[in-house]
Write the structure tokens for this entry.
Amino acid sequence: MVIHNANTQKGSDRVRDFLAKAFQDEAVLLMYLIGRKYRPLHAFTSLHSYAEMRFDKYPKLFPATLPP
């Protein structure tokens, strides 16, 4: 797995904030890990794709109060 430092991160601040909060919530992480059969890289990719869709590509489709 590639580890990025703060200077090389791409994407919006809203996506990074969402991912930072999701990494603190064990229930969300477990939900994505189970959904991707305990493959952490695939789970991270799914979570990141969801965040990009929610905050960058189609923000009008997702209400602000929607849980992860």
